Known about the structure:
Blueprint: E1 32-33, E2 42-50, H1 56-67, E3 74-81, E4 87-95, H2 98-113, E5 120-127, E6 134-138, E7 153-154, H3 166-169, E8 186-190, E9 193-197, E10 202-210, H4 216-240, E11 246-255, E12 261-271, H5 274-283, H6 285-301, E13 308-316, E14 321-326
Antiparallel strand pairs: 1-7, 2-4, 2-5, 3-4, 3-11, 5-14, 6-13, 8-9, 9-14, 10-12, 10-13, 11-12
Helix pairs in contact: 4-6, 5-6
Amino acid sequence: MESAIPAHLETTRTRHKRVPDDYQPPYPSVVARYKPAVSRVVMAYFGLQYRGEALPAALEEIAGLFAAEGGPSHWDRAHYVDQSGYETIVMVAYWDDVARFDAWFAPAREAWTGRAREGIGTFIEVLRPTVARHETLFSSPDRPEGVAVIAEGMSGEVQEHAYWGGMRDRIPLSQTDPMSPGGTPELIRDGARLRVKAHDNLCLIRSGQDWSDTESSERKLYLDDVEPVLREGMDFLRDDGLGIGCYANRYMQVLAADGSASEKSYGQSWWKSLAALERWAESHPTHVRIFGAAMKYLSTLGPSAKLRLYHEVTVAAADEQFFEYLNCHAKTGMLAAVETVSA
């Protein structure tokens, strides 16, 4: 049994874990392991917002940017319809070399949000956290998703999971820091572009499901009994999350290379703090129902379950964040966190 925190980031704790040292989790999970030389990762969400049909040219353009010199080591694409009825395609790209990202980003940003496209909104949301501010968790070691694709590999079975507080305990900084939020999101206007300056210790979670390996009875159980409850919770965060500290939530279906829907989905949300995310997870009725449906599913199937689950969570410092929007509606992403945005 390993610690989720890599050895080179372990330090003397001034804040205790939520479980005793001899805790044994009831089922196995693993985390991504980066090369020790990797001190930061970059996760960049490039979005396309529209009504009706998306313009293929815009999708080809972003794919071309990603393929350019210095582009991401990995990226994926997903789709959803937001609370205002806009079709949205989100491409999330990952780097483990910040200097490479910085050299790539300036021209890519100008190409994506520097000019208006008729009938289309574009946005960029970037975090570039130190690895001490970040954690992952996977139910299976053989199919990495998201940021884990750029990691060196996966750990062995880790101790810090399957209890409330495990998410915090897997973040190396939590050994010494409460990671409390500081400040209020502010809107900055740059011509037609809108930027949001958030605050210290903003939290991001991407939490995914992959049912592509499931067979008929398990697939039916997931799609009939679990997914509707998950969707209900995701819709609550999308529509009413602000009241509990969730600035924005997207529940998206991952798209295959040809643009068709895959059998993978993920929720991606921005939170005022890790503590706000923890409170929702531990006690809000929508997540209690999600947790109950998932536990019933897993207890019914036991080790034979082929559903794969994962997440990545980041608590970002103020200087590790970038949010920019062009021609997007006022509730898009972190624009929803500021008091008013004129039309």
